[in-house]
Design brief:
Helix content: 40-55%
Radius of gyration: 20 Å
Number of helices: 15
Structural class: alpha/beta
Largest sheet: 5 strands, parallel
Low-confidence stretches: none
Shape: globular
CATH superfamily of the largest domain: Queuine tRNA-ribosyltransferase-like
CATH architecture of the largest domain: Alpha-Beta Barrel
Number of domains: 2
Mean pLDDT: 97
RNA sequence: GGGAGAGUCGCAUAGUGGCAAUUGCAACAGACUGUAAAUCUGUCCUCUCAGGAGUUCGGUGGUUCGAGUCCACCCUCUCCCA
């Protein structure tokens, strides 16, 4: 894997770059749609490629391990073949599920034991087993197994947890280096910075993570409920400490405004369920602002979903029609909303990249944030 | 004409003496940040200084401390027999 920074700015830490993987190139900054079980919910591969213009999508180790199971993916020849995406993929390690599954899991030094949310069966993830599973899934970028701490999180817990995440990273790194890819292409391990909201822990974590000299570095444990200013503050700190010549990935972020602010701080890669999940729940992010399409006021609004939208669905369908589809519980509603939101997100990061290259990112950002955060 | 049954907050339902009244749908609004999410939460008779207050269960009377619930008559609808 190769990362090249093409453009940097004087008045911002934003940069435009190119990340090259075995399955294709990724222009940064980039937003990566989340496809937990190997599918970006409600969005067809064709639309994902042609309309959304996604360059890389996520899969999730925990979910794919439970269903369909690693043997099936192995038999299929890896996840990119299994789901016909055939383009770059990244797998999250299941560290987020350690956080989100709450009561269902138990964390120990060795690893995490958990009950499947599907059938209640008991399983254990260790850094070694997670690396083996991610090898078999076969994503181009694989995430280290970490603990995503909750918010609020007291200092002592955050410190203990960070120590564990670092020891787990050491084990992940060792395992990756003593194993070979299952398929005929390289996989890059990205370690994850933790440390909750504590600057000294984050600093310590960045230094530890940077010392591994991996192909890219991630920041985790943010946007879990902390104040947005705190998130920016910690993101900025991490961006300053993580290597400049490696992509920086802010995990699980975020709103359009979050993404623009964090690009400004030096983040290159983002993923978030927001465009897809919120889309399925009737929330649209548009060039003119945020819309709850289920609201009664759109019942007879025959204007396009997004007058400036880049997606075919934006000009093809009216707000009134999309609202009708939601009210009628039509499956097409979820598809249109998801495609629209993903197109918007990819358009947004694409524009950001363009304005970085044109060196007017800062002023563009200020203007566009005002527009896209407007509540319609 | 005779017999049987039914009328509850938009619709459908629960309710057999303490009830502003169950549940579902619909409606209206909100939430959602490395997806246990096509999910979840709230409002949903009227007014409200949000503590309450006022009117409710086809209609009119009655019994009772108290009635959606018991009684009488009336109205409407459904089914069966003519």
């Amino acid at each position: 894997m190769k990362f090249t920074v093409n453009t940097t700015l004087k008045d911002s830490n934003a940069r435009a770059g190119l990340l090259q993987t075995a399955h294709g190139d990724i222009e940064t900054p980039i937003f990566m749609p989340v496809g937990t079980v190997g599918s970006v919910k409600a969005v067809h591969q064709f639309e994902l490629k042609k309309d959304v213009k996604a360059q890389i999508i996520l899969g999730n180790t925990y979910h794919l391990y439970l269903r369909p199971g690693i043997n099936i993916i192995h038999e299929a020849g890896g996840i990119q073949k299994f789901n016909s995406w055939n383009k770059p993929m990244l797998t999250d390690s299941g560290g987020y599920q350690v956080y989100s599954l709450g009561e269902k899991r138990k964390i120990k030094e060795e690893g995490v034991t958990f009950h499947s949310h599907i059938d209640g069966s008991l399983h254990t993830f260790t850094p070694e087993s997670v690396m083996d599973i991610e090898r078999t899934i076969g994503a181009d970028i694989i995430m280290a197994f970490d603990e995503c701490t909750p918010y609020p999180c007291d200092y002592e817990y955050a410190k203990q947890s960070l120590g564990l995440t670092h020891r787990w990273l050491e084990r992940c790194y060792k395992r990756i280096n003593e194993t070979k890819p299952v398929y005929d292409y390289e996989q890059a391990l990205f370690p994850i910075v933790q440390g909750s909201v504590y600057a000294d822990l984050r600093k310590q974590s960045c230094e530890t993570i940077a010392s591994y000299n991996c192909d890219g570095n991630a920041i985790g444990g943010l946007s879990v409920g902390e104040p947005v200013e705190k998130m920016y503050e910690l993101t900025e700190l991490c961006c300053c400490l993580l290597p400049k010549d490696k992509p920086r990935y802010l995990m699980g972020v975020g709103t359009p405004a979050n993404i623009l602010e964090c690009i400004d701080l030096g983040i290159d890669m983002f993923d978030c369920v927001m465009p897809t999940r919120n889309g399925r729940n009737g929330m649209l992010f548009t060039s003119e602002g945020i819309i709850n399409i289920k609201n009664a006021k759109f019942a007879n609004d025959f204007s396009p979903i997004d007058i400036n939208g880049t997606s075919i669905v934006d000009v093809q369908y009216t707000k009134a029609y999309l609202r009708h589809l939601f009210n009628a519980h039509e499956i097409l509603a979820l598809q249109i909303a998801s495609i629209h939101n993903l197109c918007f997100y990819l358009w947004l990061v694409g524009e950001a990249r363009k304005h970085i290259i044109e060196k007017d990112f800062k002023s563009w950002k200020t203007d566009i944030i005002k527009k896209v955060t407007n509540r319609l």
